[in-house]
Specification:
With 432 residues, this protein is mostly helical. Helix content is 78%, strand content 0%. It is globular.
Length: 432
C-alpha cells in the first residue's frame, strides 16, 4: 500500500510569518522606541518632556486619520503597495529625526511617522490575516500580532545599542535603512493579497473539504460579509469601537507610566527587571489567547480579558506590596496583547471580509484617539495627586471598567450580522 502524499503547508502560514516580521519591525521603530526618541530630544534639542509628549499624541492621531484612507487603498489594491509606501514614510521620518530644530519640524516629522505606521501597520496586516484565514483566524492572528510585542524585545535593545555606539545622528537614519531593507523585500517576497490570487481557498481547503463543509453547515463555503454602511449603523460596531477608546486609553496609559509606578517601590535595578514582566506576559498571553479561542466564543473571552485588565489596573493602583506590583504587572501584561488582537477578530467575526478594512479603520481611529489621550490623562492625574501613581492607575482602572460596560451594552455579535442574504457579497466577488 503506497503512503498518502504529504499535504503541503498552507501558504497562509507564510503570510503569518511575513506579518510577524513586519509588525516586529514597525512596532519596534515606531512605538516602543518612542521613549528613546523623546529622551534624545529632551537632552539634545532642548524640548521639554510635555512638548515632546504632545508629538507622540500627534503620531497616533495622524495614524488613525490616515487609516481611513489606507483602508480604501487596501480594499482596492494589493496591500503590499500600502506597506511599501508606509515603510518609505517611516524611513524618511527616522532619517529626519536627528535634524529637527524647531517645534513645527518635530510635529511634522511625527505626523509623517504616524502616517507610515498606519500604512504599513495593523490595517493591512490584519486585513491579510482575515482574508487568508477563517477557522484558524484566532490562532493566526495571535501568532502574527505577537510581532507587536517582539518589537520591544528585539528592535528596541538594538536601537539603544546603535544610539549608544554611533550617536543619535547616525543611528536613526541607519535604523530607517535597516527597516526598509527588511520590511519591503519580505513583504514582496511572501505576502499575497488573497488566497484567490494563488488559486487557493481560505484556510487551505481542498474542493472535497469545501464541499463537505458546505454539506455539514448547509451554508456557503466562502465567508460573506456586509457593507461598511450596514456595519456603522449597528449598535455592536459602536459598542466595540467606543469601548476600545477607553480600553486602549487605560492600556497605553498604564504601559507608559509603568516605569514610574515601579520606581515608587523598587530600586532602579529592580525596576528594570520588573518592567520586563509586562512584555513577556503580553507575548505569552497573546499566544495562549489564540489557543483558548479555539474552545470558547470570542465575545466571552473578550469579556474575561476586559475584567482582568480592569482588576489588574486596580491592583496596581493599590500599591500594597512588591508582590502585588509584580502580580498586577503580569496580569495586566497578559491582557495587553489579547486586547489588541481581539478588536480585529471581533470585527471580522461580526462583519466578514468584504468591507473589513474600512470597518476596522474607523474603529481603529477611535482606538487611536484613546491611545493618544491615555498617557497625557494619566500624567495629568499624576501631577494633580502629589506625584503619586495611585490615582492615575485608578483612573486607568475606571476607564477599563467603562470600556467593559460599553462592550456589554453593544450586544452580541449575532445582532451585528444583519441579513447578509439581502445582497450577498462573497470573498471572490469583492477581491477578484
Amino acid at each position: 500500500m503506497s503512503a498518502e502524499p504529504t499535504r503541503p503547508i498552507y501558504y497562509g502560514w507564510k503570510i503569518v510569518i511575513a506579518v510577524f516580521i513586519l509588525l516586529t519591525c514597525m512596532n519596534g521603530v515606531s512605538f516602543y522606541n518612542q521613549a528613546i526618541y523623546l529622551n534624545a530630544f529632551s537632552e539634545d534639542s532642548g524640548f521639554d518632556v510635555q512638548t515632546a509628549s504632545f508629538a507622540v499624541s500627534l503620531f497616533f492621531l495622524s495614524g488613525g486619520l490616515t487609516g481611513l484612507l489606507v483602508a480604501r487603498w487596501v480594499r482596492d489594491y494589493d496591500p503590499r503597495f500600502s506597506i511599501s509606501a508606509g515603510s518609505v514614510l517611516t524611513a524618511v521620518g527616522l532619517c529626519a529625526l536627528p535634524y529637527i530644530e524647531s517645534l513645527w519640524q518635530l510635529y511634522g516629522v511625527y505626523i509623517i511617522l504616524g502616517m507610515g505606521f498606519s500604512a504599513a501597520g495593523l490595517i493591512p496586516a490584519t486585513t491579510l490575516i482575515t482574508r487568508w484565514f477563517k477557522r484558524r483566524r484566532a490562532l493566526a492572528l495571535s501568532i502574527a500580532t505577537t510581532g507587536l510585542s517582539a518589537g520591544g524585545v528585539v528592535v528596541t535593545p538594538l536601537s539603544v545599542l546603535l544610539i549608544d555606539s554611533l550617536g543619535f545622528t547616525l543611528a536613526t537614519p541607519l535604523l530607517g535603512f535597516l527597516f526598509l531593507a527588511v520590511v519591503v523585500p519580505v513583504s514582496h517576497a511572501l505576502l499575497r493579497p488573497s488566497p484567490a490570487s494563488l488559486g487557493m481557498r481560505v484556510d487551505g481547503e481542498s474542493e472535497s473539504e469545501a464541499h463537505q463543509a458546505k454539506t455539514v453547515s448547509g451554508g456557503e463555503v466562502e465567508e460573506q460579509g456586509i457593507s461598511y454602511r450596514q456595519a456603522i449603523h449597528g449598535r455592536f460596531f459602536w459598542g466595540v469601537s467606543i469601548a476600545y477608546f477607553f480600553l486602549m486609553l487605560a492600556q497605553v496609559g498604564g504601559i507608559t507610566h509603568q516605569y514610574g509606578l515601579a520606581r515608587e517601590q523598587l530600586s532602579e535595578s529592580a525596576t528594570a527587571l520588573a518592567i520586563a514582566i509586562l512584555p513577556i506576559a503580553s507575548m505569552t498571553g497573546r499566544l495562549m489567547g489564540g489557543w483558548i479561542l479555539d474552545t470558547i466564543s470570542i465575545r466571552l473571552f473578550s469579556i474575561i480579558i476586559m475584567i482582568i485588565q480592569t482588576a489588574s489596573l486596580a491592583l496596581l493602583a493599590g500599591g500594597f506590596s512588591v508582590i502585588t506590583l509584580c502580580t498586577g504587572l503580569f496580569l495586566f501584561g497578559a491582557t495587553v496583547g489579547n486586547i489588541l488582537m481581539l478588536q480585529p477578530l471581533l470585527i471580522a467575526e461580526a462583519y466578514g471580509v468584504t468591507d473589513y478594512a474600512r470597518i476596522y479603520s474607523l474603529s481603529n481611529l477611535m482606538t487611536s484617539l484613546g491611545t493618544a489621550i491615555g498617557p497625557a490623562l494619566l500624567g495629568f492625574a499624576y501631577a494633580a495627586s502629589a506625584n503619586l501613581y495611585a490615582v492615575p492607575y485608578m483612573v486607568a482602572a475606571l476607564a477599563g471598567g467603562l470600556g467593559l460596560l460599553l462592550f456589554l451594552g453593544g450586544g452580541s455579535m449575532h445582532h451585528a450580522k444583519v441579513d447578509r442574504t439581502q445582497k450577498p457579497l462573497t470573498y471572490q466577488d469583492d477581491y477578484r
